[in-house]
Design brief:
Low-confidence stretches: 3-28
CATH superfamily: Macroglobulin (MG2) domain
Structural class: alpha+beta
Strand order of the largest sheet: 4-3-6-7
Pfam families: Por_Secre_tail
Number of helices: 1
Keywords: Signal
Radius of gyration: 19 Å
Protein name: Por secretion system C-terminal sorting domain-containing protein
Number of domains: 1
Mean pLDDT: 80
Order of helices and strands: HEEEEEEE
């Protein structure tokens, strides 16, 4: 009986994880950042560019170090040569007020 309960618990837990993962994949934003890590520049690519407003880059302590207003392309390029090495946060601001966050490593 103990083994049956353990098996059922494992099965339910696995099933719940799989459904949570598929919901996460469906909600996942179609935005990519490359190359990462980057040393000279990086590009943010949008699959649904019509909803984008602004893209900003923040230091790890939250200071905005650069931003660009979306201009209608499916890609936005950033020159980061002047930034210090380290980790940065790239935040995409959408027209509906939502945001999406990506990490960037500057090497």
């Amino acid at each position: 009986m103990k083994h049956v309960i353990l098996f059922l618990s494992f099965f339910i837990l696995t099933l719940g994880t799989a459904s949570a993962q598929s919901r996460f994949d469906q909600d996942k934003a179609p935005i990519s950042l490359y190359p990462n890590p980057a040393s000279v520049s990086f590009t943010v690519k949008f699959e649904s560019p019509s909803k984008i407003n602004t893209v900003a880059v923040y230091s790890i302590i939250g200071n905005e170090v650069m931003s660009k207003k979306y201009e209608g392309n499916s890609k936005l390029n950033f020159n980061i040569q002047s930034l210090k090495k380290g980790k940065y946060i790239v935040r995409v601001f959408n027209n509906d007020g939502s945001t999406e966050t990506l990490s960037l490593i500057k090497n």
